[in-house]
Amino acid sequence: MTSFITDENAVEVLLTKAYVNQATLAAVFSDGIQRIALNMATNTPHEPFFAPFFKTLKSTTDEQEDQLQGLLAKFLASPQVNERTDDDKTLALAVRL
């Protein structure tokens, strides 16, 4: 069952975990890509999915940043991704340098 952040009970159903260390890599995504972004057996990130994204973000110059959104949209609309989901596909990534 999907719960939306705009639902009245969003705070009650939200699953969170606190970490002592600061995050250097972060990803937020919609349920449309969870089967390719997560190891569903362990409910952990699927490293081979995320590694290329974070590698690119770490090495991107300021001049290249404008191209990243279009490249991500192209990837999410690709046949390889569409073969695995017919749901919405949203992915936001962040790297702290």
Any low-confidence stretches, pLDDT <50, length ≥5? none
Arithmetic mean pLDDT: 91
- SS-derived structural category: alpha+beta
Order of helices and strands: HEHEEHHHE
Strand content: 5-15%
The value of Rg in angstroms is: 15 Å
Distance between the termini: 36 Å
Overall shape: it is globular
Residues in helices, as a percent range = 25-40%
Brief overview:
38% of the residues lie in helices and 14% in strands. By secondary structure, the chain is an alpha+beta fold.
Q: Could you explain how this protein is built, in words?
A:
- There is one protein chain.
- By secondary structure, the chain is of the alpha+beta class.
- It is 38% helix and 14% strand.
- The protein has helices at residues 10-13, 34-37, 47-59, 65-76, 79-82, and strands spanning 25-29, 38-39, 44-45, 91-95.
- The relative contact order is 0.22.
Map the helices and strands.
Elements: H1 10-13, E1 25-29, H2 34-37, E2 38-39, E3 44-45, H3 47-59, H4 65-76, H5 79-82, E4 91-95
Antiparallel strand pairs: 1-4, 2-3
Tags for this entry?
97 residues, globular, two-stranded antiparallel ribbon, 4 strands, 5 helices, alpha+beta
